[in-house]
Amino acid sequence: MKALVIGATGAVGKDLTEQLLADSRFDRVEIFVRRDVNLKSEKLTVHKVDFDRPESWSELLTGDVLFSCMGTTIKAAGSQDAQWKVDYTYQLDAAKAARANGVPTYVLVSSIGADSHSKLFYPRMKGALEEAVLKLGFEGCFILRPPSLVRKGSDRFGEKVSVSILRACNKIGIMRSLAPMPTENVAAAMIRLALSGRKGTETVSSQEILRV
After folding, report:
1. Domain containing 61 — which CATH number?
2. Does residue 85 sit within a domain?
3. pTM for the full model?
4. Closest Cα partner for 186 from 145, 128, 133, 129?
């Protein structure tokens, strides 16, 4: 089975790629990245691409499943427009190319609260992407909506604070549906959904991710 990954250098993407490389059910793993990565495996192919030029790499997106977990922050991107380009445009371009090339299964990491009609920028962006990829007609389309993520070695101050607060609330029975989730759990759920053989579209909540 051949897996395609965009966003392989992010927190979820790193765990996902490592798990795919260790999984004997996948004999080929191809990742599409903007910069060099320190990964080596006989079954790994690294495509260093310019995501602003999809015509230069779109034909390479051929395989059994596309895993899409690309994302950034406004702080890192510099503006909402720049974040939209990474989180929405790049991922949608990849999804369109994969579908045009006959890739049957698509697995997307979205976010809890994704809503294209939200007044808030981030959930509105995530919701808009969900709606766009659902229209592409993949045989199997799985959209995961994890809560706050626990990233290995994270240096994001705000993320550390929010995770600590949520964990404290969880201990007294509050907001358990928002319990922070390790990125490796999200990655494992993505793989299981891709291998499930189920057809149609599924939106997977944080609690359902844990059950998967």
Report:
1. 3.40.50.720
2. yes
3. 0.86
4. 145
